[in-house]
Amino acid sequence: MRIDIPEQKKWVFETTISIRWGDMDAMGHLNNTSYFRFLETARIDWMTQLGCPPLPTGEGPVIINAFCNFYKQFEYPGDVLLKMYVSDPGRSSFESWATMERTDMPGVIHAAGGATTVWVDFPAQKSLPMPAWLRDIVS
Predict the structure, then answer these.
(1) Cβ-based neighbours of 35, under 8 Å, separated by 6 or more
(2) Level-2 CATH architecture, domain 10-138
(3) Report field, pTM of the whole predicted structure over 0.70
């Protein structure tokens, strides 16, 4: 199975999210939109842990694209371990990646996804150079 995470990735965070009954679809597995919510939760929890919670009146991270590759379905009940990585820092952007596996099936990747993240001035709606403290983390 091919996982699209670059060799030069850097592990930065992991979290566990429980699959809720309401996350399931009519086919009895985790709805595709839930994978993106799990990825979003991991990114927001990581940034909040860094002391950078979402702040619409200031500056911070915004994603400009997101993707997810589905390899093996998740089913209720269960817990999903997301392992988050970063790579490719630029002037104002970096890539984030995450793998998703069931906690009761260590090492079996069920999905992998990521996003391009850009540092922005929210009120001005313009990108800014990434702050030095974040560049140190994602480099």
Answers:
(1) 68, 70, 100, 111, 113
(2) Roll (3.10)
(3) yes
